[in-house]
Amino acid sequence: MMIKRIPNLIILGIAMIYLLKSLIAVELLETLLTVTVAGGLVLCLIFARGINGIVSYVLFFMSLILLITFHAPWEVWMVALKKNVSLIVLYVLVPFLSFPLYYGEYIPAFNQLFTKYIYNKNRLYIVTSLLTSILAIVASIGAQHIVNTLVTPMKRHIKVIATGMTRGYICAMCWAPSMIPMIVVMNYTGASWKSLFPGAFFIAACLWLLGFCMELVNRGGKYQENHQENKFSNSEDNYFWRKLIEFGLIIILFIATIFFTQYFTEIDVFAVVAMISMLISLLWSAYLRSIDQFLAKSKEYISQIFSFSRNEIFLFWVVGFFGVSLDYAGFGNVIVELLEKISGGNPFLLLISMIVLISLTCLVGAHPMIPAIAIAGSVNPVEFGFSKELFSLVLISGWVLGSVVSPLSTNNISAAGLLGIKTFDISFRWNMVYGMVSILATVIILLVFRELGL
Length: 454
Known about the structure:
The protein has helices at residues 2-23, 27-47, 50-69, 74-82, 85-93, 99-103, 106-117, 121-139, 142-150, 158-175, 180-189, 193-215, 234-264, 269-287, 291-302, 305-329, 332-343, 347-363, 369-378, 388-405, 410-419, 423-430, 432-451. It is mostly helical. α3 (50-69) runs parallel beside α16 (305-329), α7 packs across α13 (234-264) and α21 (410-419) crosses α22 (423-430).
């Protein structure tokens, strides 16, 4: 039994050591982090499975070949080993924030919202997309699972639900500090979340508004069989609205705490997001008088960290390896030359080239993190007349727009599996036009940001 716990303890140990190292500059912690990261990588090499596992093995061995062929020194190997540790830490610890959702009676409140007030396609799209986006801040892709349970009586409007879920999810991907694209891009460009937030949130809002406008052409009639105004008494109604407001305030507290902590301290933003996720979850559970449930949920989660997340953790590790090996081997120059030839120095063509390059790579099945990191590690934004903030927004935009049109993205695969439809229906039939229009709109927004001096 103890042997089975070792992988979970190693992954958790990496996260805890990283947090301590962010607060206390001690050489011993750096050494311990290196050892535990190496141990975790070995475990992932042994146990990784599935599509992510296969992709990770290929990238890992390509990275080894590059580093060995170009005689990389020991220091480069160490940088490669720990390049994406911050991403792994957040991937492991941010889910703690979602625990109170399941024992705080918030899901019944969301269910009441759908059951009582959503009785036409426009409302269904608005609430499905917004709720997916908000829940994704604390539950990541689990937001789609929660929303799916709420829309069961309305499944005959499958297209509206599918587009609402997938487009709402990418809106959270644009700006939320707990989402993978923001985390990865900050890690590689050095931009701070507080400097990215205004622009990223504006892009997310525009993408949501664009999605809603495109849904207006599908305006449908009411479906009264789901409109049950008398199901809840006034006291129940007030209670559920209180729970909805309570949840909204928790989200605002989470975002505000990260913003002010980063503004007034020099603590690593990745450590800040991880620690605040755990702290707010604990305080939230205490407010609900559910500490016992929090501890039980934490114990259950920790016992399954490695088995549930090994493929994703391995991919995060290996993509960091791959990015460092590409940079050291000089392949970044090839990417720069390609972008220069395509754009001819034109800012509009350069922006659209980077976004389309990432999106097309997603379209053929590659994880968006791979092209995003390849570009982030190769391109010096200053040479192209971009600030690191604008460059970061370009990478995030390419990533999220690729995720909405790719039939192999986690976003579309998850939604298709939950709704019992084909991923090609979501990506090609329902989201492709939205994705193409969104690319053009995003490029225009980014050019405006550039002219404004962002």
